[in-house]
Structure formats: structure tokens, C-alpha cells
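Training component of the fellowship. As part of building independent skills, the fellow (R.M.) carried out the full modelling exercise for a liganded target. The chosen ligand was 5'-deoxyadenosine. The inputs are recorded below so that the supervisory panel can assess the work.
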Amino acid sequence: MSKSKVYIETYGCQMNVADTELVMGILNNNGFQLSQDIHDADVILLNTCSIRENAEQRIYGRLDNLKPFKTKNPDLVVGILGCMAERLRTNLIEEKKLVDVVVGPDEYKRLPEFIDMAFSGGKGIGVKLSRTETYDDIIPYREDGLQAWISVMRGCDKFCTFCVVPFTRGRERSRSLESVKAEVEHLSERGFREVTLLGQNVNSYSDNGADFADLLAACAEVDPWLRVRFTTSHPQDLSDKLLYTIAKYNNLCNYIHLPVQSGSDRILKLMNRTYTVEHYLKIIESARKIIPGVSFSTDIISGFPSETWEDHLMTLDLMEQVKYDGAYMFKYSPREGTKAYRMDDDVSEEAKTKRLQEIIALQQRHSTEINESLAGTEEVVLIEGFSRKSDKFFAGRTDSNKVVIIPFVDNISEGDYALVKINRATSATLFGDFLSIVHKREQPFQLAN
Ligand code: 5AD
Ligand code: SF4
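Fellow's submitted model of the complex:
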């Protein structure tokens, strides 16, 4: 029989993007062929997200779209992976007759087996969570490129009361430092120029006495021209040692994503975030002292149960004090099974929307102000390719994760580091002129996957 062709769509966070690469690695090793063409596929997999209600609604919408594919080809296997698979389990199969395979985040190694079950007319269901599975021994399938996601830990033990992740991804566990470092070395040899270390809460990384700062240092030492980023940090576990490590290595990017969620101590307590606004601001202050020029982004939720207008104003006030470079901003969405689900979702939809709009408007103002203040400065930019709008411009990123657009210059290409003079900015983008090459990427790629 010819190889079965698998097509995968990924929804949600970067962790899911990394998981899709793991799944592709597993399927590839087991004789499946990966396909970019949904019309040609024998298996369609959706790697899903449950973080907010609208993320799940999107998947239901997509499943409805897939019905005609199944009508046309009754042998087609449709599978749900990821957080929704874990949360809804067999309900997905009962509710959506279309679904043949349901596999949660810790059972991907058995996916080939579950797909085979579906090919023989059964249903493939694997939703056990594991305390130990880290997929340390699987090489993710990655196309050549500049930037890669590396998951360094899985699960979360924080149990923020609004969040479904501890239930869908299970207990926290770390990969070995050696295996992460080996992956970084491999990517550096293939010509990659940036890796982002991923975990729900990377600061609680731990492997045989090594903490997250040790892991970052080990990765930074692999290749001085490989930028190392990380996400996400929980304020409770962010150590001074980590800040000093970021300051020490040039290629550890001066950018910290530090979700705050709310500026009200009362709400933070109800969220089980385990820090106060005062503590959070102290971390920001230390980071700014230890890492000059560090930039921050955050996550904010508007309309958590019992949030008053005063609580909301405290969030705006905290934003004024920090002045984030960027933020991901959400309306509270009740998730079944979480502690907050049992609280009264008493902030009206209208109030949630209004508060969110105010938060977004303030963030927009801050991003613009910060970006405009960079006019006249020089930045080292990693060139990522042509700008989305035109091949007369290159797009790249600064160390602090800001997008920079520069006019086309003959002697630079994707993967080079260029020194750029910034001359103007919007809330989302910096514009500048090329000054000189800082480092050229060696070509061509040396190794296959
Ligand atoms: N409602 C709204 N936002 C949420 N987040 C997590 N759970 C919820 C929820 N139930 C947000 C948090 C988190 C980010 C990944 O998603 O801000 O940091
Ligand atoms: Fe969810 Fe909190 Fe864990 Fe982040 S730290 S994944 S918000 S429980």
C-alpha cells in the first residue's frame, strides 16, 4: 500500500506549533507521508486549543467545513489532537460523528496506532496524561528556516483559577538540559538563527539541579549568532540569576514576556496568581536595572468574576507604571472544570468589551510612544526576508522583538544581521535604513532534517 498522506492544521499557542512538529516527526518515522494539500490527504488532523471559548468554537466551525471531505471520501480519517481532545475526550466523537481519532498532548507516540485503528473502521482514542512524557527522544520535523520553537517543558502546576491548561496538559515536567542543548546545536548547524524555548512556565524548569538560567546559558553558548528567546515566565519564579544570565549573553534576547493578568491585588488573589502588584513592579524594576533596554510584554484579562470598575482602573494604572512594549489582551472566558468556573461570571459582556477596548487603546498608545522614542537609535536587526507588502523592502527583528522594515539593499539576505538606523515608527513597526552588515549567515544549509 502506498504511504498514507497526513495533513495537519495547528491552532492556538506556540506550544501547539512545536507539538505539531513533534507529531510530524513521529508520523514521518512511522511511514506516513506529510502533505500540504488537504484535498489529497488520507488523514486530516487538527491540533486544537481550549484556552478560551472562541478558540473551541473555531474548531467546531472547521469540523463543519470538513464534512464535505468525508462525504466525498468515506475512508478519510479526521482526528483532533491537543487541548480540546484532552478536555472533551469521547464527547467529541459522540457529538461530531465526523471525528475518528482523539489524542491528547501526552499520547502522541501512539498516534500511528490510533490512526491505524481508524483505518480499520474503529475509533482511536488516547487521552491519558503522563507525569513523565517529555518527548525527549523524538526529533521534531522542521522545514529549513531561520526560527524554531523548542519546547523545554510540558504541563503546568500553577492552577491559575481561570486556566484550563493544568487540566489539558497535565503536570509540569522538564526535558533534560542535554537534549535541549543538542537540539539547539543541530539547529545552529542547519543555519537557524533564532530559537525560542517554550513552556507554560519556563522559570520553574528543573533538570538534575540545573534551573532555567542554566539552561539558557547552555543554549546561548552553542552559537553566538543564534538568538535565544523564551516564553512564558510566571512572575513568581523569575529569579535575579535569570536576569543576570540574560544580561551576560549578547545572544540572549532582552525581551521578557511576563503575564500580569490584572492590576488589582484582590483580583490577582482570586486568580491564584501568587504575587501582588508591588512584587510584580519590583521584578520589572530589577530587570530594568540589570538588563538595560530590556523590553516587556504581558497578558491581561478583562472582566474576571467580580472585577469592578476600580479594579479595572488599577489595571490601567499598572500599565501606565510599566509601559509594556506589547500585550496580549483578552476578555475573560469561563472554562468548565476550573475554579473560576464556579464563581459568578458577573461582569456583563458590555463591560468586558468596554474595559478591553480601553486596555487595548492604552497599550496602543504605549507601544507607539516606546517605538517613536527609538527614532535616531541604531539597532542590530536579524533579516527575516522581504517585507509582507513588497520585495522592495526587507523585514527583520530587533533583539527586543520589534519588527523593522528597511529598503532593499543588494548585499544582504535572509539570516544576516544588519546594523540599522531607525528613523520612524508606528505602534507595531519600526522603519529604518541599512548602515552595515554585522554578520552574514553561512550558506547553504549543511544538514538535512
Ligand atoms: N479567559 C481569558 N483569557 C485566558 N487566558 C487563559 N485562560 C483564560 C480564560 N479563561 C489568557 C491568560 C494567559 C493567556 C495564555 O491566555 O492571559 O496568560
Ligand atoms: Fe494557565 Fe496560569 Fe499555568 Fe499560565 S501559569 S498555563 S495561565 S495555569
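The panel noted the following from the submitted structure. The chain has a mean pLDDT of 95. The chain is about 35% helix and 25% strand.
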